[in-house]
Amino acid sequence: MSALLDSFASAFDALPGRDAAGLGASRRDALAAALRDGMPGTRSERWKYTPLRAFERRTFAAADAQPAIFDGALLAGIPTPRLVFVNGRYDPAHSDAAGLPPGVALQPLSQLLAQGGEREVNFLARRFERPDEVFARLNAALADEGVVLRAEAGVRSALPIHLVFVGTAAGRDLASHSRHLFELRRDAELTLIEHHLAGAANTHLANSIAHVHLAAGARLTHLRVQDEAPGASLISRTDAVLARDAIYRRLDLELGGALARHEFNASLQGEGAQVISNGVLLADGKRHLDTRLGIDHVARDTRCDLLWRGLGSGRSKAAFHGGITIREGADGSVAALSNKNLLLSAGAEIDTQPVLEIHADEVQAAHGAAVGQLDATSMFYLRSRGIPEPQARALLTAAFCRETLNVIEDAPLRESLAAKLDAALARLGPVQSEPAQSEPA
Amino acid sequence: MLKIENLHVRVAGKEILKGLSLEVQPGQVHAIMGPNGAGKSTLGNVIAGREGYEVVAGSVTFEGRDLLALEPEERAASGVFLAFQYPVEIPGVNNTYFLRTAVNAQRKARGESELDSMQFLKKVREKLAVLHLKDDLLQRAVNEGFSGGEKKRNEIFQLALLEPKLAILDETDSGLDIDALKNVAEGVNALRSPDRAFLVVTHYQRLLDYITPDVVHVLADGRIVESGGPELALQLEAHGYAWVKDRVAPGHASSGAAA
């Protein structure tokens, strides 16, 4: 067995509440399955671009029960209502759920587990059947924290709810397993903003799964800014289910971390359901980013709009997989995927893979994926107006990424996300102009 | 102000300009006319410093400086402006932000103080008034989704804001209907001044009905084959470019001269 799995098996033995809320058996099953099937190798299609050979030699411990101390200044500019987690542990001192509209319940998972109500946490008992779902299985075995957000039917709130995940220094490498449920009942409407921030340099692992349930007519705007420490690892998965006419708007800015993998599955089960998923993979230094979209058009007249941008500089790697399935009977569905990438240095690698599977008639599907460099004509246009080359490059690079922010309808919110994106782009420093080679996917 | 001597330029290995010479004085408007493929756009691009144009012989000096030794942005800061035949759409870059960045980059390069947003907006309003433009183009991304006429108006607006000493208009009339053409010409006329020169590159004479040039040059096969006053443009209009071929290669000309 790998050192990594060994360390998780030990963590399970030490998990205090493993039998809470009647979850003992399903946790044991999940762990046993993970240990039995081991880590996925490079032959696993889903892990092809993210080899785990080096990673599986690492070991992680569970964090202490009490949240670690971090500099609260990090939270400046993140208003309430907000829940804060440090190295995966709920931090009540920095959290404040006041201001939530009536009909919205926001609670850390640990509280629900402690209360022992089985029904409230039954989403934790979900089984993961595929052998390559090792991190999901480990999450099912070990998750003891997370966010449970429920909005009653018809509740509409323009006030964003902030979820803050801070990674901070510890004497050893820590693993946290978080499990979230974001459930909007009929016609509810909410905005949720996830911040993944570095309180200090760290090399922890955050393994998280979010379940998103949108009932008929529900609308969720979900913005996630991942700006963790350059040494941190994040394995994230989002499973969304949309009923009739539900709309899920989502933005993922992958700006930090050493290894950040996100698998986003959305099942459009009701007629007229719609997912808009935009994102930026900002790969620099030695960062490894891997985003896999799996959009499943089950019902007719469903729609997805996917706009993703990637930047590769330094010796980074970015992999993007845009999977869209339109099932038999999902007639009238519309699917659009655009993934454009800029390769900014010869040492970087970008792999992009749009995969469209259509089993229905009368659908509209368009996809485009490209890896290239900044447009020479645009560069000349800017320079001919007096803008120096490095500034022109920075301007075009920022514009290239900023296109994804269109998913945010609220202008001030869009500007605040643009500022975060710009700050991350500024870290790239002067963008190199050396010729780069693209890697075919 | 601008002095071009015996300029030979290759594009993708093919010689396009074959010994072009031209001198422009401050305040003058020179029109460069010529058939397709004569090298008209090459001339504008090579003066502005576009990549891919290989100067194999000759010189271009601007106010006594060797223009060819400068980067495009340095040429711009020294007072050269090229209005593009096909202005580039740049999604994600706000037009106002772009213009302010350009104005301030040029000011900085010249050692002048940069304009703050209030000062810049004041300048924008002045120029809009001079050109009788509305501010509807300012809030959009650079040229994105602009009509052909809007793109050309935006070029002229940039010209007004950047206040170059030499403005090159590369087929600014192409693709414009007569109203848009008049509009653009009025803008150019409003910007004529004793210390600003224009090089108006065009295929058709009609733009010159509205912008009266001081000198008209006929460019054919990479050289200026004829120069004269505004009446030369009318002659071209009457006789067509076939008439020019006599001057390019006398003796090989067809009966076009008689047309």
Observed structural traits:
heterodimer; A: 441 residues; alpha/beta; 10-stranded mixed beta sheet; 18% helix; 37% strand; globular; disordered C terminus; B: 259 residues; 6-stranded mixed beta sheet; 4-stranded antiparallel beta sheet
The overall pLDDT of chain A, averaged over residues, is 94
Overall residue-averaged pLDDT value of chain B: 90
Shape field of chain A? globular
Strand order of the largest sheet of chain B: 6-9-10-3-11-12
Measured between the Cα atoms of the first and last residue of chain A, the distance is 32 Å
Share of β-strand residues of chain A: 35-45%
- The protein's oligomeric status is heterodimer
Poorly predicted residue ranges of chain B: 250-259
Indicate the overall shape of chain B: globular
The major beta sheet of chain B can be summarized as: 6 strands, mixed
Describe it.
The complex is a heterodimer of chains A (441) and B (259). Chain A has 441 residues and is an alpha/beta fold. Chain A contains 7 helices and 20 strands. Chain A has helices at residues 3-13, 24-37, 109-115, 134-142, 376-384, 389-402, 411-427; strands spanning 61-62, 82-86, 89-90, 104-108, 147-151, 161-167, 174-184, 189-198, 205-214, 219-227, 233-242, 247-254, 259-268, 274-283, 288-297, 303-312, 317-326, 334-343, 349-358, 364-372. In chain A, strands 1, 4, 5, 7, 9, 11, 13, 15, 17 and 19 form a 10-stranded mixed β-sheet that branches. In chain A, strands 3-2-6-8-10-12-14-16-18-20 form a 10-stranded mixed β-sheet, covered by helices on one side. In chain A, α6 (389-402) crosses α7. The longest helix of chain A is centred in the C-terminal third of the chain and has 17 residues, at 411-427. Chain A starts with a helix and ends in a 14-residue tail after the last helix. Mean pLDDT of chain A is 94; it is low at 432-441. Chain B is an alpha/beta fold. Helix content of chain B is 35%, strand content 28%. Chain B is built from 8 helices and 12 strands. Chain B has helices at residues 40-48, 72-77, 95-109, 117-131, 148-162, 178-191, 231-239, 242-248, and strands spanning 2-11, 14-24, 29-33, 53-62, 65-66, 80-83, 90-94, 141-142, 166-170, 197-202, 215-220, 223-228. The model of chain B is unreliable at 250-259 (pLDDT under 50). At the A-B interface, α5 and α6 of A face α2, β7 and α3 of B.
